[in-house]
Design brief:
This protein is α/β, with parallel strands linked by helices. It is 38% helix and 24% strand.
Amino acid sequence: MIYTITLNPALDRTIWLDELKIDDTNRIIKEEKYAGGKGIDVSRVLFNFGVPNIALGFVGGFAGLEIEGLLINEGVNFDFIKISEETRTNIVINTIKTNNQIIISAKGPNIPPFELTKLMEKINNLENPSYVVISGSLPEGLKPAIYAKIIDIAKAKSATVVLDTDGDVLKFNINHKPDIIKPNRHELSRVVGREIKTIDDAVIAAKEINRMGVKIVLVSLGKDGIVYVSQNTVMHAIPPSLKVINTIGAGDSSVAGFIYAKYMGFSDEEALVYAVATGSATTLKPGTALATLEDALRLKDKVKVRYL
């Protein structure tokens, strides 16, 4: 079974305006709500691709119930820990005339020790995990070491561990040797302490992380695709030229595309192609909707891979 872990999920309230006017009334043209959070996004895409998985994490209050209801309606399986505080709500503003997207991200609830203990009991009892995907920021009250503990438990159960987070949390947990990480250019810069300007810069930095025990580093470069770096192989997958509508969830979709391909028994090169195709497909979706398998298959053959 594949498990995704999102400790700081969000209810994404997505609204569309003609334009964002200052010191004037802004009337909403359309509004939708989505179950958000990086691991939840991975679960949603995997479900769209027909891959069984379970989303784990914390939810609380009315927003938490909304997230559960949205996932039930989509068909996504989850097994969340209920918390005493309210799950955060993020605001995503799309302006139609200028085609801009403004994201207002909330901090999230405080997680006391007794609620964390409930989650750890659940993770300790996971049965036959094949992949464990740990994604996103930490809510208030939790320290980077919690991800390290989850990595250690999952690896002891012979799961492939994917870590997708940022900053000090990512830097701290690389030492616990997750199998795969997926930083973007800026996140990788923060890990190695220098700016990543070129593909060569990304490869050199990713090689450093390989030597620390991470088997695969997937460096997301936006419209320039993804660089795959392992101990013996370096590849660069380039997406087709597209008119991007939305970037929310694109990185998470790439993670899901990669896992889908590996789950299906495909090679790492094919998995990289699926990662790029799936992330690209999500950028064509409005709001915070995510790619389907049909979307990814339409783009897959247009992804170009070169070995470096």
